[in-house]
């Protein structure tokens, strides 16, 4: 059973539709206790990092997710959920979950000499790194994925980056450390390649 974390900051409906299309059994809940028996968790998110961390603290999902990761259980972050698994975000200057060492920086602080349209919104393909990830198995090399974000993952250890997109700077698009994997893009909004990623997480990760 797959659990979907609902903390009032997630792109929940599109994730539900994707899993339903794939025939995956799932539980959606705002209560960590309801997800404790799940085999894997999907941690989606859209919006502001500081607000998201407030919601995680209010629901108890902050401590729940930290313990889940420490216990070695599979966790997949999506979009904002791929960012706040790191230590700190410049979006609201907020301490985050710290599941993977690193911080989240605004595009302007990484590409100071470039004229960027922010947020980075649209379709980009990926360049695989560091041996790629099992969630990308069977995904065509030239596949495009849907991005919408203004902040960029900056991990302490570059080896956790399993795929990048290019938007003036290299944008970590898939990160993985042990049992924690995350996509900066929206697989649930990225057509068949995105559905393949979700299927791989549910069946292989």
Task: Please specify the SSE layout and strand pairing.
Elements: E1 2-5, H1 12-22, E2 26-29, H2 32-35, E3 40-43, H3 49-59, H4 61-70, E4 75-78, H5 80-83, E5 88-89, E6 94-95, E7 102-106, E8 120-125, E9 127-128, E10 144-149, E11 151-155, E12 161-167, E13 169-177, E14 180-183, H6 191-204
Parallel strand pairs: 1-2, 1-3, 3-4, 4-14, 5-7
Antiparallel strand pairs: 5-6, 7-11, 8-10, 9-12, 12-13, 13-14
What does this structure look like?
The protein is an alpha/beta fold and 205 residues long. The protein has helices at 12-22, 32-35, 49-59, 61-70, 80-83, 191-204; strands at 2-5, 26-29, 40-43, 75-78, 88-89, 94-95, 102-106, 120-125, 127-128, 144-149, 151-155, 161-167, 169-177, 180-183. An eight-stranded mixed beta sheet has the order 2-1-3-4-14-13-12-9, with helices on both faces. Strands 6-5-7-11 form a four-stranded mixed beta sheet, covered by helices on one side. The chain has a two-stranded antiparallel ribbon with strand order 8-10. The longest helix is centred in the C-terminal third of the chain and has 14 residues, at 191-204. The mean pLDDT is 96.
